[in-house]
Amino acid sequence: MTTDPLPTPLASTSWLAEHLDDPDLRILDATVVLTPPAGAGDEWSVASGQSLHDAAHVPGAHYANLIDDLSEPEGRFTRPSAERFTAAIERLGVGDGTRVVVYDRGGGVWAARLWWLLRSFGFDDAAVLDGGWALWEAEGRPVTASPTPVAGPASFTARERPSLFADRDDVLAVVNDGGACLVNALDREDFEATSTDRYPRPGRIPGSLSVPAGRLTDPATGRVLPVEELRAAFADVLARPGRKITYCGGGIAATADALALTLLGEEDVAVYDGSLAEWTADPALPLEVG
Questions:
Q1: pLDDT of residue 2
Q2: CA-CA distance, 270 to 259, in Å (whole number)?
Q3: Which strands form 269-272's sheet, in the order they lie side by side?
Q4: Architecture of 163-279 per CATH?
Q5: Which of 219, 227, 210 has the alpha carbon at shortest distance from 262?
Q6: Which end of the chain, N or C, is more open, meaning fewer C-beta atoms within 10 Å of its C-beta?
Q7: Of 49, 13, 227, 23, nearest to 127 (Cα)?
Q8: According to CATH, where is 3.40.250.10 located in the chain?
Q9: How big is the CA angle at 20 (ends 15 and 21), to the nearest 5 degrees?
Q10: Among 97, 87, 82, 90, CA closest to 62
């Protein structure tokens, strides 16, 4: 074992391969299975990635359930209370003095979500696996179907960082008075939509800039784009001074934009957890369409 520090916010597959046996390292599989609607008017469905994890995972990894354990029971993927998060993360062996690498099978957005949650509760020694499961498997890295035993009791000290999340009132204040840059992480087609079968109303939050999370990774490797390419993608956003608030449909893709902004050195970044699912449900809130 070496004593190389954990690279954050991204850890390479080669780094993880070299550190699989580090006793203080916890590897978490945050996969959620997202299925598009079968027909017009149907909703996207989400399902646990537990069965995929059980069939094959990075040696030493535990499955982190973002649907049931690491979100509030009400709503979809709502940030959990400190008590709920602490109980769930301790069951995965994560505590003070441990280090965490998170991956997924969904382009990195689920891993980014868990990474952002960890940061929001004061845990900084965590990284997203750059390229995720797809790159790990493509490179022929070791995989296993053997369950990973929990590495003894863990004690996680939650330290709330409320500034890492924004709520409806925070966003409405930006719409009315400025003071921050709103970043829409959905695909450009969703950003410009004039109709929708995904939300109660079509449109985007007024004044938003478009930086799709799906365009922040290399299609060939799944790795996050080099910093200079990220800087170009966020050029309009970075030109705006002050706080950056990212959002999407339900607070997941928004965390990928938040991770990228962190890579670019932005320190005042928040995720609007309710995102369009909450915003479009209130007919009193304004939208831009087209």
A1: 46
A2: 10
A3: 165-166, 269-272, 243-247, 180-184, 209-210
A4: 3-Layer(aba) Sandwich (3.40)
A5: 227
A6: C
A7: 13
A8: 10-160, 163-279
A9: 130
A10: 90
SS3 content of the chain, % helix, strand, coil (to 5): 30, 20, 50
CB atoms within 10 A of CB 209: 17
Separation of CA 97 from chain center: 23
Provide the 10 A C-beta neighbour count for residue 190.
21
102, 164, 166, 248: the active-site residue: 248
120 within 8 A of 161, measured Cβ to Cβ: yes
The answer to whether the peptide bond before residue 73 is cis (omega within 30 degrees of 0) is no
94 forms bridges with which residues in the sheet?
none
Mutual angle of helices 109-120 and 253-263, in 10-degree steps: 70
- Residue 105's nearest CA partner among 16, 30, 14, 17 is 30
Residue 20 tokens read as 């699989």
Q: Are 135 and 221 in contact (CB under 8 A)?
A: yes
Cα of first residue to Cα of last residue in the chain, in angstroms, is 55
Task: Domain 10-160: give its CATH superfamily.
Answer: Rhodanese-like domain (3.40.250.10)
Q: By C-alpha distance, which of 265, 224, 255, 261 is closest to 11?
A: 224
What is the per-residue pLDDT across 176-195, written as a single tens digit (0 to 9) for each? 999 999 999 999 999 998 88
Q: What are the backbone dihedrals phi and psi of residue 132, each rounded to the nearest 5 degrees, phi first?
A: 60, -160
Low-confidence ranges of the chain (pLDDT < 50): 1-2
Pairing of strands 243-247, 269-272: parallel
Query: Alpha helices, DSSP H only, in 80-125?
Result: 82-91, 109-120
DSSP code of residue 96: T
